[in-house]
Write a structure and sequence with these properties.
Blueprint (H helix, E strand, L loop, with lengths): L8 E2 L1 E3 L2 E3 L6 E6 L4 E7 L3 H20 L2 H17 L1 H11 L4 H19 L9 E6 L2 E9 L2 E5 L7 H12 L3 E5 L6 H12 L7 E3 L4 H9 L3 E7 L2 H13 L3 E5 L4 E5 L5 H13 L9 E7 H15 L19 H16 L3 E4 L18 E4 L6 H4 L6 E7 L2 H10 L2 E2 L1 E5 L3 H10 L4 E4 L15 E2 L2 E2 L6 H7 L1 E9 L17
Parallel strand pairs: 1-5, 8-9, 8-11, 9-10, 11-12, 13-14, 13-19, 14-17, 16-17, 19-20
Antiparallel strand pairs: 2-3, 4-5, 6-7, 7-23, 12-22, 15-16, 18-21
The protein binds nicotinamide-adenine-dinucleotide.
Length: 502
């Protein structure tokens, strides 16, 4: 379908088919590498969301009662489709998000891991059984789905973040309404269609596109039992407060400002490679990106030199052209990120590599800022305190371990952090002392594998369940404890006291 602007319109996916809903509103989808509008996306009204939730509620009885084997069978088929067609999905990611193709394939690989975990996780849907807790009495637990759940995802991982939640929510027997980022929504549509091809019944997974109106409708709908959110901290806090006030279970993953501490005994080449990969991969638009390098004074000059040398070799440009780094998501975001270079200059920091000078390998008028390295950033500067979410790596010089740790502890965020050192004692101390949810030891982006769980501390996660892994199953299931006695006639009789064991 096309609209007045003659670009295709991406519809919602409800009850196993495209659906336009009632809203006349649409939003533009850009290719950030060219700056051109490539399509429009439907923006749902709250009534549209109501219809999707209703369809999900209708589909619940059949899906919840399908055997674990049947639900896992769908997941196996989806795994095969996703693996066979991942290049197609990667091209969608590059076209709408801008990340380079190799990075897009990496994103899909991390999502695929969760799908594979869900395929083999029947043991996480098992209850427990205690035989003869009292004479003739057994107690056991059932793990049942929560019901209809809402998933609200950010722009920066349009495939991976939905795939953190969908496989687990679905295999556990829930039905889902997904509201992806309106900036790069096509990946979610692709995933929903692939699930349909894998045999997922209509209504079990619905995708509703939209903005705040659609999100608020999910948060307020009485039939939605749980909400999984990933996005910026102010919105995560809002989601948590509003949805939990409505009695829903909520996990709301927020923003980050990840520090990488480099001690003097670290391998500086390894640390420089890691800082560049983790600082500039995906143009710094990763919640686990390293944005602050805490360099101990004695090695800071050498380390900054090595990083600058490496940055000079990076190619920035269209993600389909074999470049290292792509554009930022929107023109407004590019301008905002570039604005921090002026702030750095005004605050007395030293710009070592200036991304504003970049000449991208691209056509058109994309949203470009090259890799930027800023040294001697004062910790009072907004460059240090704000989540910039772009290709800007700030260096803060510290006297040693204690000062580095104190800075990480003072940050309101606690998503990821890393220490680079060859001193096992220092690394062990760091992993135990630091108030951050995911810690790397000589690993700059410590994203846990799918059979652990992903999530930060402090203002990086509101709620008490992390994403995927065992905590994902805990979030998407409700435990029911059954106390059962198969009657033995010798145990009858009246007794109005609170039951005691006998
Ligand atoms: P965002 O908070 O702007 O948007 C996230 C989602 O919320 C989108 O679906 C959006 O439509 C919706 N939304 C936006 N404003 C809203 C409002 N006022 N009311 C209701 N809903 C609203 O985030 P983004 O810019 O899409 O993504 C980048 C952010 O996500 C960064 O802060 C990044 O650190 C964070 N992030 C965190 C993690 C993590 O695991 N902690 C992972 C990825 C991204």
């Amino acid at each position: 379908m096309t609209d007045q602007t003659s670009t295709p319109v991406l519809e919602h996916w409800v009850d196993g088919a495209p659906w336009s809903g009632d809203s006349g509103r649409t939003g533009p989808i850009h290719n950030p590498a060219t700056g051109r509008v490539s399509g429009q996306v439907r923006l749902a009204t709250s009534a549209d969301v109501g219809v999707a939730v209703e369809r999900a509620a209708t589909a619940l009885a059949g899906w919840r009662d399908a055997s674990i084997a049947k639900r896992q069978g769908v997941m196996f088929s989806f795994r095969e489709i996703l693996n066979a067609r991942k290049q197609e999905l990667a091209e969608i990611l590059t076209a709408e998000h801008g990340k380079v193709l190799s990075d897009a394939l990496g994103e899909i690989a991390r999502g695929l891991e969760v799908v594979e975990f869900a395929c083999g996780s029947g043991h996480l849907l098992k209850g427990e059984y205690s035989d003869s807790v009292s004479t003739g009495v057994d107690v056991y637990t059932l793990k049942q789905p929560v019901g209809v759940v809402g998933v609200i995802s950010p722009f920066n991982f349009p495939a991976m973040v939905p795939l953190w939640f969908l496989p687990i929510a679905l295999v556990a027997g829930n039905t889902v309404v997904l509201k992806p980022s309106e900036k790069d929504p096509t990946a979610s549509d692709w995933i929903a269609r692939a699930f349909a091809d894998a045999g997922l019944p209509g209504g079990v997974l619905n995708v509703v596109h939209g903005d705040k109106e659609a999100v608020d409708a999910i948060l307020d709908h009485p039939t939605v039992g749980a909400v999984s959110f990933v996005g910026s901290t102010p919105i995560a806090r809002y989601i948590y407060e509003r949805a939990s006030a409505k009695g829903k279970r909520v996990q709301a993953l927020g923003g980050a400002k990840n520090h990488m501490l480099v001690l003097p005994d670290a391998d500086l080449d390894l640390a420089a490679d890691a800082a560049v990969n983790a600082g500039f991969g995906s143009a710094g638009e990763r919640c686990m990106a390293v944005s602050v390098l805490l360099a101990t004074e004695s090695i800071a000059d050498a380390l900054v030199g090595k990083i600058a040398e490496r940055v000079a070799t990076l190619r920035t440009g269209d993600g389909t052209r074999g470049c290292d780094m792509g554009p930022l998501i929107t023109r407004e975001h590019r301008d905002k990120v570039a604005g921090y270079l002026g702030v750095a200059e005004a605050d007395g920091a030293e710009i070592v590599v200036d991304g504003r000078d970049v000449v991208p390998d691209a056509d058109g008028d994309g949203f470009w800022l090259g890799p930027t390295l800023i040294d001697k950033v004062p910790t009072s500067s907004a460059v240090y305190t704000d989540e910039i979410f772009g290709p800007v790596l700030s260096v803060v010089r510290v006297a040693g371990y204690e000062e580095g740790l104190a800075l990480i502890e003072a940050s309101p965020y606690g998503n990821g952090t890393a220490i680079f050192t060859n001193d096992g004692g220092a690394a062990r101390r760091f992993q135990r002392e630091v108030s951050v949810g995911m810690v790397g030891v000589n690993v700059p982006i410590p994203v846990p594998v799918a059979y652990h769980s992903f999530g930060g501390w402090k203002a990086s996660l509101f709620g008490d369940a992390k994403a995927y892994g065992p905590q994902g199953f805990a979030f998407f299931t409700r435990e029911k404890a059954v106390t059962s006695r198969w009657l033995d006639p010798s145990h009858g009789g009246l007794n109005l006291g609170f039951p005691q064991h006998d």
